[in-house]
Specification:
about 170 residues, mainly alpha, 8 helices, about 60% helix
Length: about 170
């Protein structure tokens, strides 16, 4: 299919990709992805902290070949990153910071095969978490219903600033 035949699939009068910064549902999609990932990372971090305990998590890390001391920053990253994602604060940075955590877990599960229900757990779930976190980091802004956008709106001078922000585009800012 060449470029002209692809353009015939686009309705007449529809804005061209170059003319739009995002689709109108992007903030909602960002919200859904960020809350889902945030809750998953938060649950995994709290399990390390409250169920397995930090010394137990450190022992597990050592049993799979990682330095036990890594249990502490990984747990912090999962809890803090999960909270930031759920709240919608520094979403892109939090999501990007969780990619290496998910990739590290993927490396642990790699020898067990792809399916997560394999003995020892496969790598499909952790690889998906890494990919979804990277996708969230690539989306613009914090999304709908985010604390970050609310803070940015409060900092805008009354009656001044960027008219796009006043119209609600602040939810899309990085």
């Amino acid at each position: 299919m060449n470029r002209s035949s692809i353009q015939t699939l686009i309705p007449a009068g529809a804005p061209r990709h170059e003319e739009t910064h995002m689709h109108s549902s992007t903030p909602l999609a960002t919200l859904v992805l960020r809350v889902a990932l945030g809750l998953l990372f938060l649950a995994h971090g709290l399990a390390k902290l409250l169920v397995y305990t930090l010394p137990g998590t450190a022992a597990f890390f050592e049993s799979v070949g990682y330095p036990g001391i890594l249990a502490y920053p990984v747990t912090l990253a999962e809890v803090a990153g999960g909270l930031l994602l759920v709240a919608g604060m520094a979403t892109r940075w939090a999501a990007l910071g969780l990619v290496p955590v998910a990739l590290g877990a993927t490396a642990v599960h790699w020898p067990n095969g792809w399916l997560f229900n394999n003995p020892g757990g496969g790598w499909e779930f952790t690889a998906f978490l890494a990919a979804a976190s990277l996708a969230l980091a690539l989306l613009p802004g914090d999304g709908a219903l985010s604390v970050g956008a609310a803070i940015r709106r409060r900092r805008e001078p009354a009656g001044g600033g960027d008219p796009g922000v006043a119209a609600g585009a602040g939810a899309h800012a990085a």
